[in-house]
Amino acid sequence: MRAAVVTAFGGPEVVEVVEIDVPEPGAGQIRIKVAAAALNPVDAGVRVGVFGGAGERLGLGWDVAGTVDAVGVGAGWAVGDQVVALSYGPVKSLGTHADYVVVDADAVALAPASIDAVHAATLPLNALAAAQALDLLALEAGQSLLVTGAAGAVGGYAVQLAVHRGLSVTALARDADEALVRSLGAGSFVSGEVAPGSVDAVLDAAIVGDAALEWVRDGGGFVAVIPHTEPASVRGVRTAAVEVSADGARLAELVALVDEGVLTARVADTFALADVVKAHARLAEGGVRGRLVLVP
CATH code for 2-123+265-295? Predict the structure, then answer.
């Protein structure tokens, strides 16, 4: 089968599509025949060596939508199930940018019924990151939240989930994205300066850092969506960063919200797996709204 990997660090050109053996699921695992797999910034991070692994063959891809193809002992899924899953980990020999991938059964949920596999593939990593970041903030209905990078994939899901929880959401994005983030439910929009201490919490999807911390009231909350990027606490503001975790039960809840129309899966463009270098090049250009998705 084919898989996208890197064996040296660098630009988009270092990504290779290689032939490897089809993986076999172990106990508590399933194999998925990949129908679609999103390309995320974390894949670019793996490609350039942010997470290490020099000298190894590193598989790319975290998100997957597809069909259960083989089942390990005790996995609890059936061949033919249409599923989505998160294949966690930046340093792994095989990711979801492949014809087949093996994942732990408890990282899997039934796929949304209301959208196709290409759109479903944008859900696991980004929606889980947004939901788990909101969990860390632990805000109550009526409290105010500012989401940076609100037009991005994680930020967009965060806006919709926060509105669904009854929060008063301000979206920080470029002027050109105002209509987009308001369509996601943001009640307020800013593209520049924010008044100090004006919100109960910030969900920092754009990794603004210290400047965004100043926008939080004393004793409020701040969560970044990339591990170890949160600023030091000041004025009693709780600061943290989410380390996304694979959680099939939580993913099933997010799938239900897609089918209820609460969450909108956004696809910017699709690429064949054979064109993965072109997909990485497009991601590197920036300005992508929604996710780029690879289709084997």
Answer: 3.90.180.10
